[in-house]
Amino acid sequence: MKHSIWRPFFWLKVPLLGGTVLGVLAYAPYTLAAGPGSLAPSVSKSLERSTAFLLSRRRGNGAWLDHPAVTSLACAALLGVPGHGRTEIREAVDRGLDYVVGLAQPDGSIWNRTAEDYPNYSTSISLIALALANRSKDARVVRAARDFLLKSQFKGDPDRDPSYGGIGYGKKLRPDLSNTQWALEALYLTDYLDREPFTRDRDRAQRADLAWKRALTFLSRCQNLPETNDQVWVASDPDNRGGFVYMPGESKAGEIEQGGRKSLRSYGSMTYAGLKSMIYARLSPDDPRVKAAVDWVRRHYTFAENPGMGSAGLYYYLHTCAKALAAYGQDALVDAAGKRRLWRRELTTALIKRQRPDGSWVNANGRWWESIPELTTAYAMLTIEVAQGRMPAAVGTRRVPARGEQKEERHE
Questions:
Q1: CB of 46 closer than 8 Å to CB of 361
Q2: Is 225 exposed, middle or buried (0-12, 13-18, 19+ CB in 10 A)?
């Protein structure tokens, strides 16, 4: 199966005044089909209702739940709604992001030190929203947050330390795939900052490349694939093969007994997190790790639950599904029964059916905060926007370097 577009972002050269050509990172959007049977009217209505809900739940300081990560997810979701340029939406996003930037710390992290918060988790999601919004006044904060996340990566002995290459919450001395996938998405969106023309320091590019190499080591050690994972807990049975777990040595889906030893179960949200992260790390679609992950996805294809976890983390799962499948670059998958699945339509339809009358989404299973409608509504909106190509068509077409950086002239 050929992939016409492998990575969802690509480099463009945009001519600027004075003859300079600027390299930018642009999004390759999925085109929402029109005509009979189109979901466009339903999508627009759904997002209009959820927009009204989110706007109604802001705090007086412009934040959602007084939490930088939830605020950032809400702001990112509002960037992709119909009429996102309307004054009320634009002002809500600006106030929300101003709140987020106001929590930036001297070390580059973005988090609330007075609350029960996690530095790496909040910094990663905040950086994603700031990168999508692309406000020139945030350039210094964006670069500092990126540098903080790069420094947060575990860099011990790769041969002996299963934590090597991962990123954790920031308060706990161990990494996990959930925090790692958030951090890698943030680093992927801001990777341009360590490349020409935004820096002339070649060491920055080498440092970024090394971080991706380390990350692949950690990702491989979270995957149930004996050929590429050196950990003793790896499952070898067909059902778990290719899927991912929460961290080396731990799966939220539990354990299985195999040949007198304990192995870990793969589950949905982490498998999509692993697939997405491997794509961002530039693995080829023919890489055995990618192929095995996609095979697991096909065998466990569903939007009714988080495979292996049931209703727990459902909206996190659906949000990660959309991003991973969009990154994979195929609009259709063939499931275990041989049926061709149009995942964009099916995922969008499944979410619209779950929307509540007030425009929100909420999970009756409250694990991982999913009983909080501000969080789950932001997840759901982002899921629909990614699936239906409503995210900003060009992410970073007007990137502004941090003050003091020089843009080199580029000539055709």
A1: no
A2: buried
Residue among 394, 388, 387, 329 nearest 132 (CA):
394
Can you tell me whether residue 13 is helix, strand or coil? strand
CB contact set of 306 (below 8 Å; sequence gap of 6+): 267, 268, 269, 312, 313, 314, 316, 317
* d(C-alpha 35, C-alpha 46), whole Å: 18
Is 62 in contact with 78 (CB distance < 8 Å)? no
Q: Domain limits of the chain?
A: 9-32+39-193+314-387
Distance from first CA to last CA of the chain, Å, rounded?
34
Q: Note whether 242 and 307 are within 8 A (CB).
A: no
User: Rounded to whole angstroms, how far apart are CA atoms 318 and 302?
Assistant: 10
Beta strands of 162-285 (E only): which ranges?
255-258, 261-264
Coil/strand/helix, residue 21: strand
Between CA 371 and CA 222 the distance in angstroms is 28
Give the long-range contacts of residues 166-173, CB within 8 A, separation 24 or more: 166/215, 166/218, 166/247, 167/120, 167/124, 168/120, 169/118, 169/119, 169/120, 169/121, 170/109, 170/111, 170/118, 170/119, 170/120, 170/121, 170/123, 171/118, 171/119
**pTM surpassing 0.85?**
yes
Quick check: helix, strand or coil at residue 23? Answer: strand
Instruction: Collapse the DSSP code of 186 into the 3-class scheme (helix H, G, I; strand E, B; otherwise coil) and give the result.
Output: helix
Average pLDDT over residues 350-372: 97
How does pLDDT run across 213-259, given as a tens digit for each residue? 999 999 999 999 999 999 999 998 999 999 999 999 999 999 999 87
Q: Are the beta carbons of 251 and 267 closer than 8 angstroms?
A: yes
Our CA angle for 195, 198, 202, nearest 5°, is 45
- Residue 363 near residue 308, CB atoms below 8 Å: no
CATH topology of domain 9-32+39-193+314-387: Glycosyltransferase (1.50.10)
Mean pLDDT of 282-297: 97
pLDDT averaged over the chain?
87
d(CA 360, CA 372): 10
Least confident stretch, 34-38, 107-111, 376-380, 388-392: 34-38
248 in Cβ contact with 222 (< 8 Å): yes
Both tokens of residue 13? Answer: 């050269």
